[in-house]
């Protein structure tokens, strides 16, 4: 670099000023008191809330309480190695974790340190643990389905990409199973619809996590999944930060790569308990159920980070590579933001977003005199999403406790799992009556919407009639028919673990059920009949399967063709493998 003589003085002054600020940052304090994963520190008068600290033994900490004469901090690591009087250093930065593709397939702790013994994670990227959720203008409505592969959920409680759906239920009701099956189902996505999954285990036994990771590896789901574990044996601070670390790792793919992501937080009740423990140790005033007053914020700021980001388009020179993220290439409309509505850009940089960003960009391109030299470009780092599946454990079905009500109110719906159903063999044990998805049909394939429309009401009516029928009263034929249909639908929606269905299989199964093709199949035969029927479609009518996959709809005469195929199948089924006494009428 060359300087003019009269500039040298100002450059030196500037350098001295910078030098000062750097010195100021490394403020050093002393530990007053340490234990149970927390420390009180004297002398860090300039510390910020949430700032990362370094202890003399190498452990990291995070500033939690700013008090008059001291700072309360949580210790993320070995607090037993910290003694009274030890030095603590400020770092001037917030806590962050390593992120990036290098983490895929790895099992890490909430600070991103490997737990799987597969060596260091080399990634140039880091993201802050806490990140402000984007505002409404940077988002777009949730409309793309996130297929769980579970018939009952995709049919009745559809989840969209960017949605937050709570999985709630007592101990051992299959909560983890629903989340893991959803992760497993993402292996069937085509490359351009890939979903990166992050599974955050909070307060589980280490052996449980090892089992889950083995299972994910076995079915090939670890190829697109990051596992973060803060086990029951880990100190409370690590359990407290684990879900934020998970969100940060997913955010890399959402913001930097424009990809779809899925975060499972298993489970947030344990995180809230860890937070309560820390807060009480740091003498924050306890409120309801002894949780500190800001426990709502604990979960709201986490779940608000789940979004569907807007797609960004621009008119760019024709030779721009498809993976270009350079907004500066955008050809700006000469009238800028004053242009007519159909071609008005949404950003001062000439980019088009929502709604109808693509159409507006196309209209602008068409209006250019030398339009052959340009094209409409979608920025590949836009349009990412983060879907969240938080899990909450209830005690004796008590959904009105503090933490469950909080999380219910933050999420866009809940899947409610019930022990009674679970033990009666209805698995997944979803209570259809009180499970909802507020995004609902907007995020459902048309084909699914058409077949599953009445399913939910049918089942709810069935549950009511069922209770009534137990009284032993005489039933009229219409009621009896409703009961029979209901029993078969319940049977049809049962699904074993680790066997997610394709959309076409889900559609065909539910079609057979809701259109009454199962009404004369004995209840205990339903599962076998369904399996054989799906095989029949795969072998004999691949064109129907393809059409459902391709059009994602049941248009034209497709429903009739499916109906005819099922009738054909039924006549075969009777002649062939049907065990004695289970014949069905064609
Ligand atoms: N659809 C299913 N079909 C058969 N078995 C299932 C199904 N879903 C779950 N299970 C079994 O039920 C048991 C409990 O499931 P899971 O661990 O998912 O429940 P949970 O609610 O997460 O339990 P916890 O309270 O321990 O977290 C497991 O042994 C699991 O294999
Ligand atoms: Mg579980």
What's a concise summary of this model?
This protein is of the alpha/beta class and 586 residues long.
Strand content: 15-25%
Average of per-residue pLDDT values: 92
Radius of gyration (CA) equals 28 Å
> What is the domain total for the residues?
4
Low-confidence stretches are: none
Oligomer: single chain
Name the hetero compounds present.
adenosine-5'-triphosphate, magnesium ion
What name does CATH use for the topology of the largest domain?
A: Rossmann fold
Specify the structural class.
Answer: alpha/beta
CATH homology superfamily name of the largest domain = P-loop containing nucleotide triphosphate hydrolases
The general outline is globular
CATH architecture of the largest domain: 3-Layer(aba) Sandwich
Q: How many beta strands in the DSSP annotation?
A: 18
Describe the structure.
The strands form 4 sheets. Strands 8-12-11-13-16-10-17-18 form an 8-stranded mixed sheet, with helices on both faces. Strands 1-2-5-4-3-6 form a 6-stranded antiparallel barrel. 44% of the residues are buried. The chain is globular, with a radius of gyration of 28 Å. The protein contains 17 helices and 18 strands. The chain is 37% helix and 17% strand. It folds into 4 domains: 24-95, Beta Barrel (Elongation Factor Tu (Ef-tu), domain 3); 155-308 and 384-423, Rossmann fold; 313-378, no CATH class; 446-575, Lysin (Up-down Bundle). A hairpin with a 4-residue loop joins strand 3 and strand 4. Bound molecules: adenosine-5'-triphosphate and magnesium ion. Magnesium ion binds at residues 175-176, 266.
């Amino acid at each position: 670099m060359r300087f003019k003589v009269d500039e040298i003085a100002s450059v030196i002054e500037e350098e001295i000023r910078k030098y000062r600020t750097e010195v100021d940052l490394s403020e050093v304090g002393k530990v007053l008191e340490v234990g149970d994963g927390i420390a009180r520190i004297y002398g860090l008068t300039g510390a910020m809330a949430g700032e990362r600290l370094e202890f003399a033994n190498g452990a990291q900490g995070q500033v939690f309480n700013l008090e008059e004469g001291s700072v309360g901090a949580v210790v993320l690591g070995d607090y037993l190695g910290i003694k009274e009087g030890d030095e603590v250093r400020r770092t001037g930065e917030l806590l962050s974790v390593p992120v990036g593709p290098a983490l895929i397939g790895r099992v890490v702790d909430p600070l991103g340190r490997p737990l799987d013994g597969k060596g260091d994670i080399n990634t140039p990227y880091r993201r802050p643990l806490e990140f402000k959720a984007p505002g409404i203008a940077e988002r777009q409505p949730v409309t793309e389905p996130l297929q769980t592969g579970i018939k009952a959920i995709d049919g009745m409680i559809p989840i969209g990409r960017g949605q937050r759906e709570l999985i709630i239920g007592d101990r051992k009701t299959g909560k983890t199973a629903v989340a893991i099956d959803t992760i497993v189902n993402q292996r069937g996505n085509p490359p351009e619809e890939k979903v990166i999954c992050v599974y955050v285990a909070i307060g589980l036994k280490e052996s449980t996590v090892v089992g889950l990771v083995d299972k994910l590896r076995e079915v090939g789901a670890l190829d697109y999944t990051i596992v973060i574990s803060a086990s029951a044996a880990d100190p409370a601070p690590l359990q407290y930060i684990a879900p934020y670390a998970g969100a940060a790792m997913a955010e890399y793919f959402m913001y930097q790569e424009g990809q779809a992501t899925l975060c499972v937080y298993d489970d947030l009740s344990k995180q809230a308990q860890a937070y309560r423990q820390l807060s009480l140790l740091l003498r924050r005033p306890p409120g309801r159920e002894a949780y500190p007053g800001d426990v709502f914020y604990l979960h709201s700021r986490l779940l608000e980070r789940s979004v569907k980001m807007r797609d960004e388009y621009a008119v760019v020179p024709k030779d721009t590579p498809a993976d270009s993220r350079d907004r500066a290439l955008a050809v700006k409309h000469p009238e800028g933001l004053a242009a007519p509505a159909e071609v008005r850009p949404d950003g001062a940089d000439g980019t088009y977003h929502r709604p109808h960003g693509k159409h507006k960009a196309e209209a602008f391109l068409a209006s250019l005199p030398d339009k052959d030299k340009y094209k409409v470009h979608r920025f590949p780092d836009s349009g990412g999403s983060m879907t969240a599946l938080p899990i909450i454990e209830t005690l004796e079905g008590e959904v009105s406790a503090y933490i469950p009500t909080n999380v219910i109110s933050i999420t866009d719906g809940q899947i409610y799992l019930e022990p009674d159903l679970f033990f009666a063999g209805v698995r997944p044990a979803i209570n259809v009556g009180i499970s909802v998805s507020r995004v609902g049909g907007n995020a459902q394939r048309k084909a699914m919407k058409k077949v599953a429309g009445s399913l939910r009401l049918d089942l709810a009516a069935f549950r009511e009639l069922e209770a009534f029928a137990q009284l032993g009263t005489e039933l009229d034929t219409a009621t009896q028919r409703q009961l029979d249909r209901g029993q078969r639908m319940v049977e049809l929606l049962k699904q074993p673990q680790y066997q997610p269905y394709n959309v076409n299989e889900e559609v065909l199964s539910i079609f057979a059920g809701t259109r009454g093709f199962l009404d004369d199949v004995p209840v205990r035969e339903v599962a076998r009949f369904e399996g054989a029927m799906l095989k029949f479609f795969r072998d004999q009518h691949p064109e129907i399967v393809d059409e459902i996959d391709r059009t994602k709809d049941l248009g034209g005469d497709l429903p009739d063709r499916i109906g005819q195929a099922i009738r054909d199948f039924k006549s075969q089924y009777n002649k062939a493998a049907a065990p004695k006494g289970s014949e069905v009428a064609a």
